[in-house]
Design brief:
- This protein is an alpha+beta fold and 390 residues long.
- The chain has two domains: 175 residues, no CATH class; 102 residues, Arc Repressor Mutant, subunit A (Orthogonal Bundle), CATH 1.10.10.
- Helices cover 38% and strands 20% of the residues.
- β13 and β14 form a beta hairpin.
- α2 packs across α14, α3 crosses α5 and α11 crosses α13.
């Protein structure tokens, strides 16, 4: 006992590496595939980008184009939307599910997402969860009917599914009010019973999961500990550098049941390394981590081997999806103004941040002239501290 105790006392703990905020920015940008020469569009190139960033958020708003097309267009040269469609609807190497928001996710990550599917219909004590479970219990006949119709007609649009067996209408102040079939499909999707098998415009075609998920998709049943290990691994690789809070907000947002335990384990085994991020001569708040596999990249960036480029980002881009992190790391105070009255908007309905190298320099207020196939710029707003020239 005494010898083991002495060994623990004499063990040397290496001090965390210190990096400056510029290096942290460049690492974050690089792992998000927003630096260097972008690949030419092909199904493999698009899949490679999604593997790097792990998910691509979906959103129905289409001022310039739908958000996934903007996110991938910022990372893939000459991006062709047909290549994403092939991955989704033919190859089934990606599918639509919930990551930090409704997203395109990787089929190879299915065990991570299947863990949440199993959790979805469990009572976690929250008011929202209780309301959802009570509504589904009151609508057991509707659930059976919807599943039977999807089994018979799928892939099928929601509007083709009868909601005649509704027992209790869904009530809300939003678009889902009394949209009982849509609500049931949404709950069945989140719990893994149905999947999106195609689209007609922005309308989803629904089918049973067993007819959409490919036979060779991984189906391991993960414990809370193992799902956290895998999710932390992917989240930090997508962040480049981040704190526990940032990891928790990224990828499978708020679904890290053993986060602190896994970070301690990963740090102990060298899977992640702790770093100090400095700005203006002082450490930035929080305990920051870099994935062990990204340490060689970090060292190359520190030696000046970094290729900047400029691009506009979707408001839903992975780099800025965590608004607090974007402000801390990039001084980008970004808020959507879609629901702000026009007279009170500062930057525009759908302003797109402009990333130039390792900093945000402007926001563009775009519009699409679809009749003539032209992108219109209604305004350009320089970021604070950026010098403009005419």
């Amino acid at each position: 006992m005494g010898h083991r105790h002495e060994a623990r006392l004499t063990r040397v703990t290496r001090a965390p590496r210190t990096i400056d905020r510029t290096t942290a920015r460049r690492l974050a940008i690089t792992v998000q595939r927003l630096a260097g020469t972008p690949p030419r569009s092909s199904p493999n190139a698009v899949l490679g980008v999604i593997r790097s960033i792990r998910c691509v958020q979906l959103d129905p708003i289409s001022v310039v184009a739908r958000s996934p097309l903007l996110v991938l267009g910022s990372r893939v040269a000459g991006f062709d939307p047909k290549h994403l469609d092939r991955l989704l609807w033919r190859d089934h190497s990606v599918y639509e599910y919930w990551a930090h928001a409704a997203s395109v996710v990787l089929t190879e990550d299915h065990p991570i997402h299947a863990w949440y599917m199993r959790q979805y219909l469990r009572d976690d004590g929250s008011a929202w969860n209780r309301r959802r479970l009570d509504w589904m219990a009151a609508n057991a006949k509707l659930k059976r009917s919807v599943l039977a119709q999807v089994r018979r007609d799928g892939p099928v649009l929601a509007r083709r599914i009868s909601g005649g067996l509704t027992g209790e209408s869904w009530r809300s102040s939003g678009w889902t009010n009394e949209r009982n079939v849509d609500r049931m499909l949404g709950f069945l999707w989140a719990s893994g019973r149905v999947m999106v098998a195609g689209r007609e415009g922005i309308q989803k075609r629904w089918d049973l999961t067993e007819r959409v998920l490919p036979a060779d998709a991984p189906r391991e049943r993960l414990s809370d500990l193992e799902v956290t290990r895998r999710a932390v691994d992917r989240s930090l690789r997508g962040l480049g550098v981040g704190t526990a809070k940032h990891i928790k907000s990224h990828f499978t947002r708020d679904r890290y049941p053993e986060l602190n335990r896994v970070l301690a384990e990963f740090e102990r085994t060298g899977r992640v390394e702790r770093v100090v991020v400095e700005h203006d001569g002082a450490p930035m708040p929080g305990t920051w981590y870099v994935h062990g596999d990204d340490m060689p990249l970090l060292e190359r960036i520190e030696r000046g081997r970094w290729e900047p480029r400029a691009t506009m980002l979707s408001p839903f881009d992975n780099l800025i999806a965590d608004r607090a992190r974007a402000e801390l790391l990039f001084d980008l105070s970004y808020r959507m103004e879609i629901y702000v009255p026009k007279a009170k908007r500062r930057y525009g309905y759908y302003s797109m941040p402009v990333l130039d190298g390792d900093r945000f320099v402007a926001r563009v207020d775009p519009a699409m002239d679809r009749a003539n196939g032209r992108l219109l710029v209604r305004a350009v707003h320089a970021e604070p501290g950026v010098r403009t020239t005419r």
